[in-house]
Every structure is written in structure tokens, then in C-alpha cells.
């Protein structure tokens, strides 16, 4: 917001620059992981969640789609295959170069750029979809990121966020048990170790997770920026569930305490948020 400095301003004041390099083991891991069937299924679920938010006559597009934290570009390529205009951004130069090579090999016209989510290179109100998987937890200036996502989306545009879940003790950010429940000072200690002598704690990531979220907190932050936010229980297709699954989903929708318990049992946070404003036609 206006009272807070942008990420780049804050880093400049601290005399810091973004590090666009990374450990080769980190790059190799994501290069392999991005091609797995498990990852493809995950990306298909994200696409289904996003399209749920659009009226049926708008789902075919073509939509302007931006993939923030695009990595090797698997998600960008999936949306490009569907005929959408796709833009990808990542802070990791090696992964962006890999994404470019893969897209060129498939004959896909995708714009990939190296940059930070705190200062996106696109104009105001130019995007229909903003995809942000597993990124906010790694960026100290995460509120500036939310400002940027809101800025580039047009009214009715859809933001997809996935991140960690502070309510659930199960997590994949640190190779430590029950880490999301650790007190703040202890987390800071392990963050420092991950950046210095124990990089294996975070699978050699240059920027380990430093933020911990809940759906409820992010819903409030997104609401301040003009978004209407939905959690994974809102976007789940009940028709694909068993009778018992449909019953459980209906109960979660009607009983707030049960919904809270369901979040405690979920090791991640998934949000679909729709930017409100004149001309908005999404849900």
C-alpha cells in the first residue's frame, strides 16, 4: 500500500540486489519435477480452479495470462496450448532460459522475462489471469506483490495463489518436522541456517520460505485490494466427488468450525480471487 515502500525501494535502501542465480541442484530438481505426471495433474487442477471463476462464455479466451514464478515454464506452456496469450516471469535466470528453450522447441510464442514479483513489467489492467503458485512465502515484501497483482489485473480478472498453511503442521518448505508450528524466533534461526551452512534444509533454494499464511488472513489482505477470495472448498467440483465426498463438502460449506478444521488438515493454501470493479463479469 502507499504507506509501505515497494520491494525494490526497500531493497535499494538496504543496499541489496536480487540474486538471479541458484544452486545447480535446485535448478535440476525443478527441471525434472516440472515434467512429471504429478506436476501436470497439479497444473490441470489450477487451470480448473481459475476457469471456474469465469462465466462459461469467457473460458475459451483467448485470455491474457501471466505466470509469476514460472520456473521451467510447464504451466505457461499448458495455457499456451489452450490458445491463450501467455507471459512468464521468474527471479531465477537459469529456469527462465530453460522455459524459453522448451517453448521454442514446441513452437510456442510465450514471453518469458527475468524479474521480481515486487515490480512487474506489465501495464495496469492488462491481464485476465494472474497465476502465482508457491511464491508468496519466499518474498519478504509479499504485500507489495499483492499490490502488483492487483495493479496488472483488469476488473473481473482472476488471481490464483497457492502457498503454505500456518494452521497445518505438515509442510514441504523445510525438511524439519512440524515446522509451520515453530515459534517465530526459532523459524528465523533455521532461515539463517538455510541461507548459510545448511542449504539442504530447503532443498538448496536461494530464497527459503520466510512467510507463513492462512486462507483467512490472505482473504482479508486481498479484500483490501479489491478482491473477492474463495478457498479450495468453494472451487472444488462436487460432481466429481463420491456421495460421501459431496456430503462432506456441503457440511464444510455450511459449518464454519468444520471449515476451519478442514484447513487445519490441509498442508497448503489455495485461493482463487476475483478483482472487483466496473466491468467485472466473473463470479
From TrEMBL:
Region annotated Disordered, chain positions: 1-21
Keywords: Methyltransferase, S-adenosyl-L-methionine, Transferase
Molecular functions per Gene Ontology: S-adenosylmethionine-dependent methyltransferase activity
Superkingdom in the source lineage: Bacteria
Every Methyltransferase type domain range: 66-161
Protein name per Swiss-Prot or TrEMBL: Methyltransferase domain-containing protein
Any one Gene Ontology BP term: methylation
Any matching Pfam family: Methyltransf_11
Amino acid at each position: 500500500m502507499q504507506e509501505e515502500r515497494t520491494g525494490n525501494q526497500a531493497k535499494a535502501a538496504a543496499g541489496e540486489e536480487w540474486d538471479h542465480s541458484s544452486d545447480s541442484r535446485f535448478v535440476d530438481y525443478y527441471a525434472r519435477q516440472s515434467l512429471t505426471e504429478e506436476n501436470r495433474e497439479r497444473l490441470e487442477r489450477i487451470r480448473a480452479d481459475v476457469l471456474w471463476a469465469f462465466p462459461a462464455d469467457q473460458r475459451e479466451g483467448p485470455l491474457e495470462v501471466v505466470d509469476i514464478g514460472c520456473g521451467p515454464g510447464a504451466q505457461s506452456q499448458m495455457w499456451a496450448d489452450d490458445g491463450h496469450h501467455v507471459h512468464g516471469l521468474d527471479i531465477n535466470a537459469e529456469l527462465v532460459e530453460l522455459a524459453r528453450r522448451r517453448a521454442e522447441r514446441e513452437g510456442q510464442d510465450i514471453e518469458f522475462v527475468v524479474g521480481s514479483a515486487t515490480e512487474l513489467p506489465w501495464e495496469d489492467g492488462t491481464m485476465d489471469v494472474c497465476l502465482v503458485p508457491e511464491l508468496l512465502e519466499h518474498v519478504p515484501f509479499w504485500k507489495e506483490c499483492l499490490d502488483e497483482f492487483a495493479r496488472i489485473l483488469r476488473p473481473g480478472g482472476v488471481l490464483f495463489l497457492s502457498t503454505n498453511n500456518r494452521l497445518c503442521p505438515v509442510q514441504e518448505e523445510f525438511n524439519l518436522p512440524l515446522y509451520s508450528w515453530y515459534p517465530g524466533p526459532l523459524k528465523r534461526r533455521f532461515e539463517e541456517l538455510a541461507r548459510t551452512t545448511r542449504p539442504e534444509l530447503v532443498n538448496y533454494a536461494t530464497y527459503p520460505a520466510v512467510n507463513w499464511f492462512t486462507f483467512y488472513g490472505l482473504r482479508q489482505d486481498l479484500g483490501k485490494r479489491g478482491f473477492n477470495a474463495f478457498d479450495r472448498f468453494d472451487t472444488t467440483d462436487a460432481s466429481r466427488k463420491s456421495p460421501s465426498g459431496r456430503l462432506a463438502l456441503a457440511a464444510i460449506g455450511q459449518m464454519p468450525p468444520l471449515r476451519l478444521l478442514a484447513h487445519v488438515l490441509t498442508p497448503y493454501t489455495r485461493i482463487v480471487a476475483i478483482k472487483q470493479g466496473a466491468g467485472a463479469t466473473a463470479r
